[in-house]
Structure formats: C-alpha cells, structure tokens
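Researcher: Next sequence.
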Amino acid sequence: MTESYTVTVEPLGSEISCRADQTILDACLREGIWLPHACTHGTCGTCKAEILDGEADLGDASPYALLESERDEGAALICVATPRSDLVIEGEVDVEDGIEIHPVRDFAGTLEVLDDIAPGVRRLVIALDTPMAFNAGQYVQLTLPGGGTRPYSIASPPSQADRIELQVKRTDGGAATDGWIFAGLTVGDRIALAGPYGRFCFNPAREEPLLLLGTGTGLAPLAAIVRTIVDLEEERGWERPVVLYHGTSTAAGLYDRAWFEELAATRDWFDYRPAVSREECGGRRGRVPALLAEDFPRASGNVAYVCGSPAMVEDTMKALMKARLFPRYIYREDFFDAADRASGANVVRSPLIRR
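Model: Next structure:
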C-alpha cells in the first residue's frame, strides 16, 4: 500500500493527505484547495510554492520554470512534486469573486463523437458516467491507454455536465494523438479522465465587454465561454459586447466557422473575427495580435481571455497592454508542448496576470 503524508497548506492552515505517488497539487485540488496552476506538467511555473518544512521529490520540473537557485531556496512546482515526508507548504491562495470552486475528481465515459473538423484537428464528445461540474475555460486530463495523461480544454458549456467536448490537434509523434486519438481510438471506446483543472475561467460576474482571442485549438475554451454566454442569455439576458478572434494559418483551419457566423448574424452582442495568416480567406488576413492592434488602438474597459501557443499569447499580451489594457483585466492560457518544454518558452510570468 502506498504511503501517505500530511501536507499543511499555508496561509490557510489546512491539512490534507497526499500519497507518495501523488502530486501535491493534485491532492490539494481534490480537497477543494484551489492553488494557482496552468500546465500541470512542470513547464509554466504557475504553481510554484515554497516548502517551509519537510522533504519532497521535485519531479520532472523544467529547469527553466524552476531555477537551481529557487530549488536551493526551497521552491517547488507542486504540479510535479511529490511528498517524501509530512510537509508544510506556502502557496498563493486567491479565489476571484464570482468563480465557483469545483474539486478535481476522476471520471469515466464513452466516446460518442469522433469527427475530423479541420486538417489535423479532431472533435471528441465523451458521454460521462457521472456529470462533472466545471467552469467555462477549464480543462481535463485524459488518461492514455499506455499510461500517462494529457490535458485538453473543454469546448462545451457547464450546462452540459454529462458530456464534454474536446478539440484535439495532432502532434507529430505525440503519444496521445499519433499514438491514440488519431490512430486506434473509435466511437464506443471507454475513456478515463480527471478534472476540472485550471484557473483560466470565465467569470460571468465581471461587467466589462469581452475580448476572446485564440489560435488553433485555443478556440476550445473560448467556445465554451461563448456557449455559456448563450445559455446565460436564455436564462436572464445578455447585452455586453463579445468579440471573438480565431487565428489559423489557412482558411481550412477555421472550424465551426458557420456556427459562429450564424451566431454573429443573430446576436447584436456577438462579433466573430477570423484571422488567417498565410492565405486569403474571403476576409481579413493577418495574425491575431496585429488585427487586434488595428481594431483596438485603445482596449481599456474590456476584459480579455487569451489562449494559444506561448508565442501567440505573449504577442497578444503585448498588443493588449500597448492598447492600455492592463494585466488585471487579462486572463491567459498557454498551450505548451514538448518543444516548448525543451526550450523553456515563456516561463517568466508577471504575478499580476490572471491565468
């Protein structure tokens, strides 16, 4: 039987049990203690916490996200760190007003839909055995058949708690994609997963107009936000402007374009702005940050949700701040892959930026 240790989380003073083979972050999230986290595989540095007492295995933490000097001072990335004794840790405990906390749980379900929706992109719809409560923008961890996990953002709204939609981009040689989702996975297969994860959450209590900015499958959490707003409109009305930018390299990558265009045609509050960078698409051509700069020379008064590759997110952040939208009004979600991990891409973060 795997040994367990007591982890005390300061400044809350909460004590939780954590197995020796379980990450500290996972144990906290399953007890409803919502510590900062993003990538959950030791790359981004968002979950960095201080170990005040006790010993931990720091796990596979990127040397770019957790510097040697920080290790010497007792810091750890708790998304990959595991306990080796009872621990006392200190983390940033900051839950935004209007955001509901949903503890992480294990789920299983049956694959109902597996569709190719763009070159190298598949839509998965999983019917869950038990409903999962989550916030629009969060993600799940799929368990791979051969072991290990991979994170994917939920594209469906929380109102559909019994089935979730994922939008998965193929990665050359990827264990989850080339080795499973784009290989042997078929409708009817059973899938194990855990969630919800992430602090990239739509907050309906905020009163500002929304700028939603994503590239590729970074559209997934933004689609969940749009679909949640449609639900809110039906329940109690919605008037705040919502502008969605979806950037791709070719027009074929603009999946679900017809649905967004129809929504824009029937809702005064919604504006859909596709951005194609490498070819003409019957509309505007360019990258999301450049088109954003053209459209919003002054972006103050909005709240922005940004999702995509680290480079896209960084460029969009610069465009937003140049347009006078400051970090406390920006939520970001970086999609890291193995190449980003190896290069240490974009691991330096401002603590003011919500993620």
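Model: The chain is about 20% helix and 30% strand. The two ends are 36 Å apart (CA to CA).
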